[in-house]
Automatic annotation (TrEMBL):
<dbReference type="GO" id="GO:0016020">
    <property type="term" value="C:membrane"/>
</dbReference>
<dbReference type="Pfam" id="PF13947">
    <property type="entry name" value="GUB_WAK_bind"/>
</dbReference>
<keyword id="KW-0732">Signal</keyword>
<dbReference type="InterPro" id="IPR032872">
    <property type="entry name" value="WAK_assoc_C"/>
</dbReference>
<keyword id="KW-0325">Glycoprotein</keyword>
<dbReference type="GO" id="GO:0004674">
    <property type="term" value="F:protein serine/threonine kinase activity"/>
</dbReference>
<feature type="domain" description="Wall-associated receptor kinase galacturonan-binding">
    <location>
        <begin position="35"/>
        <end position="97"/>
    </location>
</feature>
<dbReference type="GO" id="GO:0030247">
    <property type="term" value="F:polysaccharide binding"/>
</dbReference>
<dbReference type="InterPro" id="IPR025287">
    <property type="entry name" value="WAK_GUB"/>
</dbReference>
<protein>
    <recommendedName>
        <fullName>non-specific serine/threonine protein kinase</fullName>
        <ecNumber>2.7.11.1</ecNumber>
    </recommendedName>
</protein>
<feature type="domain" description="Wall-associated receptor kinase C-terminal">
    <location>
        <begin position="155"/>
        <end position="238"/>
    </location>
</feature>
<dbReference type="Pfam" id="PF14380">
    <property type="entry name" value="WAK_assoc"/>
</dbReference>
<feature type="signal peptide">
    <location>
        <begin position="1"/>
        <end position="27"/>
    </location>
</feature>
């Protein structure tokens, strides 16, 4: 190969390498950009482990942390109900939720209809967790009930809510009620007794989750994500397993 042909070969090789790098950079950027924090319009920013299918890719969060935007409001589905995401604390891994039906102006009596459960979810109750117990269509009227549900009562059957159902059971049997439902609330002070049940429930309740510390990835310039239920750090040059830099990485799928 003469000198002129060698020069052309080197130039062609350089162009090929640069083109490959540009394509690879674009591929990584395409994975990096969708995982930027997103806001439905109202409420907190949504980022790992939460993600929204309407605006982000599945690898931007964990499958069980999917949030949908409805009328600019972030909604998380749990225990067969839709919950408004009022706040997310990414420092202590907690989320503040309230039943969305409470904010439906067309529902004049938005009482909880079934028990809340975190079974099968990635969440646990926070330290400020408490419970409010609802009793529906009871054949007796408990005079000690702090919260009367006039919208769910009539002349012969009464509905009410209590913080401590054990006090009720000393004098009455819950079998005299057609249904009982327990729902989570945030434990505060005695000001609760001055509030109606919708105000109490609208305050919401906190749940916490355990997960990988995302801060190291973010501080290194990356975006946290999930691949095959494993934590990944999406960097501007590669998808890595911990944080951006010279550490182990996952092969980047260009598709």
């Amino acid at each position: 190969m003469d000198h002129k042909s060698l020069s052309r070969y080197k130039v062609s090789l350089m162009i090929l390498i640069l083109t490959s790098l540009v394509i690879r950079a674009q591929s990584v950027t395409q994975k990096f950009t969708p995982c930027l924090p997103f806001n439905c319009g109202n409420g907190p920013n949504i980022s790992y482990p939460f993600w929204t299918p309407q605006k982000q890719e599945p690898y931007c969060g964990s499958p069980q942390f999917s949030i949908t935007c409805h009328d600019k409001t972030p909604i998380l589905k749990l225990s067969d109900d839709d919950y408004i995401v009022k706040d997310i604390n990414y420092v202590n891994n907690s989320v503040l939720l309230a039943v969305s039906e409470l904010f439906n102006d067309k529902n004049s009596c938005p009482t909880p209809l079934h028990n809340f459960s975190i079974s099968g979810s990635p969440f646990d109750y926070g330290l400020d967790f408490a419970e409010l117990h609802f009793f529906y269509n009871c054949s007796f009227n408990d005079e000690s009930a702090r919260i009367n549900l006039s919208c769910a009562s009539n002349r012969s059957h009464h509905s009410f809510a209590l913080f401590h159902p054990e006090f009720l059971q000393k004098d009455y049997s819950v079998d005299l009620c057609q249904a009982t439902v327990t729902t989570p609330i945030t434990a505060v002070d005695l000001d609760f007794v001055k509030m109606n049940y919708t105000e109490i429930l609208k305050n919401g309740f906190s749940l916490k989750w355990n997960g990988v510390d995302c801060s190291k990835c973010v501080k290194s310039g990356g975006r946290c994500g999930s691949l095959d239920d494993n934590f990944i750090c999406i960097c501007n040059d590669q998808v890595r397993s911990g944080k951006c830099g010279k550490f182990s990485y996952y092969p980047l799928n260009d598709s």
